[in-house]
């Protein structure tokens, strides 16, 4: 099999698809962290929530209703979290933030259990992307290509906003030095709120698009949390470049590790993480050079 | 226009200012002098809301000053910190553009054009990264950025620190231009000659209090005060 070009193409596309999912999750988390030094471990729970909202909405109005509304609903939950909890904890230091948001994971876990039960839910792939597509000599599920395309489109949109617009420059300035940004009359707290909401919506979106591939279970948020944190640490905090690079590295190492060295697959990514931490403790592309 | 009375402030548990009082007048330049560790930079950071005001009052244009840096900036004070704090991931242009906001009011006095007229050097470096600049260029950028906020008071912390004499001269001339244009300034400075040739009024800070207050001419003539408080 290893000599078959189609096999490599298939694995590369699988890796890319996993990377894009991780990118949607990690970008929000890393910029929130970079901008406000706020550790939100409950970010994965928002991903699970996105999947659940999508499952319920899909039951009413089909996949696309979930696709468009679930991220908005997750952003709404983000607003509640922000005004109820996070704003009060902005100055309370990383230890308290980690503890509270870690606790939040379990609160959200049980809330999803109460509302949706313990059984795994399934969502159908939308009919538009139900089939397979002939690509580079192999047949590949159209829906997975859709995820890859969506991830790339969102990467391009964020690269444009962060790199070419006034608000993007303000966000980068806030990540560089939030105190100085405030002294220039930039409302860093409001910027943080906007970034936080967008980050929540993207986490929700990741949950929505992942739902038809995986089964929707209460602990899916917990399962994705560690990979997301690894992506951020490898990529470096606070930067778009770091999030995409970290996601690609994780996606490819994980996917190719699993097919080429299954015995090592679960250790491989941690070994890589350790290597990055030894060679470049701040990650590959941190926002603060 | 800015009045500090009996302010106490510091870093965490360490109190640096012990009841400092001073006043900056409309249309004039005030120099804050003093030895290292006297509390000069702490005073500026407290005005900007970067350090908490533990007690005392700061009044700007007749109103108690806000306590968050964002609101202080909005009320019309621009700050050029000792470390310049140019944003490394922004280009020179972006560093300027994000500051170029007005908080209400008529047409801005300071536009990008006018700022680049003042510092033509920056015009040639617009697309460079903020940290690709020399120390002198960073200082120019930090001042230009402050001006684009169209402040009614400009605060500068050690504007000549680490700069070559020729750049110090240039910065001096530019600040002299700003003074002539009527912009009130507060300057914290170690360079006695630089500060007293620019300032109208001088406050000397020692151990967290104002220990000498007078005009720039007076302190230039008062060698005893220079010796006691500044070690000149």
What is the total number of structural domains of chain B?
A: 2
Based on helices, strands and strand pairing, what is the structural class of chain B? alpha/beta
Helix content of chain B: 25-40%
Tell me the name of the CATH class of the largest domain in chain B.
Alpha Beta
CATH fold node name of the largest domain in chain B: Rossmann fold
Strand content of chain B: 25-35%
Mean residue pLDDT of chain B: 92
The largest β sheet of chain A comes out as: 2 strands, antiparallel
What is the strand tally of chain A?
Answer: 2
Chain-averaged pLDDT of chain A: 92
Helix proportion of residues of chain A, in percent?
over 70%
Shape of chain A: globular
Task: Based on Cα principal axes, name the global outline of chain B.
Answer: globular
Secondary-structure element sequence of chain B? EEEHEEHEHHHHEHEHEEHH
Q: How would you classify the quaternary structure?
A: heterodimer
């Amino acid at each position: 099999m290893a000599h078959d070009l189609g096999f490599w193409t298939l694995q590369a596309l699988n890796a890319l698809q996993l990377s894009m999912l991780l990118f949607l999750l990690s970008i929000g988390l890393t910029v929130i962290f970079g901008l406000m030094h706020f550790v939100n471990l409950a970010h994965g729970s928002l991903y699970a929530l996105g999947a659940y909202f999508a499952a319920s909405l899909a039951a009413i109005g089909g996949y696309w209703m979930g696709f468009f509304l679930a991220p908005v609903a997750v952003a709404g939950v983000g607003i509640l979290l922000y005004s109820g909890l996070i704003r009060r904890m902005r100055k309370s230091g990383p230890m308290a933030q980690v503890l509270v948001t870690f606790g939040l994971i379990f609160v959200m876990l049980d809330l999803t259990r109460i509302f949706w039960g313990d059984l795994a839910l399934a969502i159908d792939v939308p009919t538009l992307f139900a089939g397979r597509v002939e690509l580079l000599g192999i047949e590949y599920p159209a829906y997975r290509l859709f995820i890859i395309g969506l991830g790339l489109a969102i990467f391009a949109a964020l690269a444009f906003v962060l790199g070419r617009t006034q608000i993007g420059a303000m966000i980068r300035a806030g990540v560089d030095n939030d105190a100085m940004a405030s002294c220039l009359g930039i409302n860093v707290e409001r910027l943080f709120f906007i970034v936080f909401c967008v980050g929540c919506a993207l986490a929700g979106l990741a949950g929505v698009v992942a739902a038809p591939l995986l089964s929707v279970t209460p602990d899916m948020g917990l399962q994705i949390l560690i990979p997301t944190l690894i992506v951020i640490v490898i990529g470096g905090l606070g930067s778009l470049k770091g999030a995409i690079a970290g996601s690609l590295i994780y996606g490819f190492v994980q996917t190719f590790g699993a097919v080429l060295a299954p015995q090592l697959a679960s250790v491989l990514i941690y070994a890589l993480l350790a290597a990055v931490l030894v060679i470049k403790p701040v990650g590959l592309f941190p926002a603060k050079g | 226009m800015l009045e500090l009375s009996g302010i106490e402030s510091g870093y965490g548990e360490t109190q640096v200012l012990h009841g400092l009082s001073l006043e900056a007048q409309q249309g004039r330049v005030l120099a804050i002098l003093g030895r290292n560790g006297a509390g000069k930079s702490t005073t500026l950071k407290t005005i900007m809301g970067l350090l908490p005001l533990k007690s005392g009052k700061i009044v700007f244009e007749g109103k108690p000053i806000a306590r968050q840096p964002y609101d202080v900036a909005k009320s019309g004070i621009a700050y050029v910190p000792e470390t310049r704090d140019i944003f490394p991931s922004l280009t020179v242009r972006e560093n300027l553009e994000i500051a170029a906001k007005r908080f209400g009011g008529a047409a801005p006095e300071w536009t990008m054009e006018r700022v680049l007229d003042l510092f033509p050097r920056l015009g040639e470096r617009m697309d460079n990264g903020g940290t690709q600049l020399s120390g002198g260029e960073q200082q120019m950028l930090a001042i230009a950025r402050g001006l684009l906020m169209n402040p009614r008071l400009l605060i500068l912390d050690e504007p000549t620190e680490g700069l070559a004499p020729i750049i110090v001269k240039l910065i001096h001339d530019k600040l002299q231009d700003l003074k002539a244009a009527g912009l009130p300034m507060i300057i914290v400075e170690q360079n006695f000659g630089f500060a007293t040739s620019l300032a109208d009024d001088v406050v000397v800070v020692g151990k967290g209090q104002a220990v000498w207050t007078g005009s720039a001419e007076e302190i230039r003539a008062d060698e005893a005060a220079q010796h006691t408080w500044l070690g000149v």
